[in-house]
Design a protein that fits this description.
Layout: H1 6-35, H2 46-57, H3 62-74, E1 80-87, E2 93-100, H4 103-116, E3 120-121, E4 131-132, E5 142-143, H5 151-166, E6 170-175
Antiparallel strand pairs: 1-2, 1-3, 2-6, 4-5
Helix pairs in contact: 1-2, 1-3
Length: 178
């Protein structure tokens, strides 16, 4: 009867859920740290306020949020924001936003993921024209020219986007697919 313990099943399920929740927490806290750089007061920083709201929606403890905000005041963290442009399967445009402490490592990981899914990195500015930049209270890239793709190519793009989002440094992935 080895391996059939009720406790073992609970431990395995809880461990997987905790790992997933920890990844979400670290992404949200990194976004808070980067947003707090310009102004650590959420009353005057819309981007920080939005990041804190999103963290609270995902049940991030208030103590962790405060620690991420105050971390910027001491300048202990050397995280930087990256906006990467790429072309996915079928020529779909991708904008990948990441927060990382090692841009070389992140770029190499993203290049490998793109290569594995028949996508390629694009030079800066070659994809942004297809999107309206983030502005005001909206912090997401909106496609100017939505692209229609066949179902197989859409599926390939979906797998690529899912793998990119699973990468720990990636915050958001935007595409121009309808």
């Amino acid at each position: 009867m080895a391996g059939h313990s009720h406790w073992k099943q609970i431990k395995t399920q809880k461990g997987a859920a905790d790992k997933k929740r920890g990844q979400v927490f670290s992404k949200l806290l990194a976004a808070i740290s980067v947003a707090a750089r310009s102004e650590p007061n959420p009353q005057f920083n819309i981007r920080l306020r939005a990041a804190i709201l999103k963290a609270k929606e995902n049940h991030v403890p208030q103590e962790s949020i405060e620690r991420a905000t105050s971390r910027v005041l001491g300048q202990n963290e050397n995280a930087e924001e990256l906006t990467i442009e790429a072309y996915g399967p079928g020529g779909s445009a991708l904008i990948i936003e990441a927060i990382t402490s090692s841009s070389n490592r992140t770029m190499n990981e993203l290049k490998q993921i793109l290569k594995d899914h028949d996508a390629k990195l694009a030079p800066p500015g070659s994809v942004r024209w297809a999107f309206d930049p983030p502005q005001g209270e909206f912090f997401d890239w909106r496609p100017k020219f939505p692209q229609t793709l066949d179902s197989l190519t859409k599926e390939k793009n979906g797998v690529l986007i899912a793998e990119l989002k699973n990468q720990t440094d990636v915050q958001n992935v935007y595409t121009n697919i309808k």
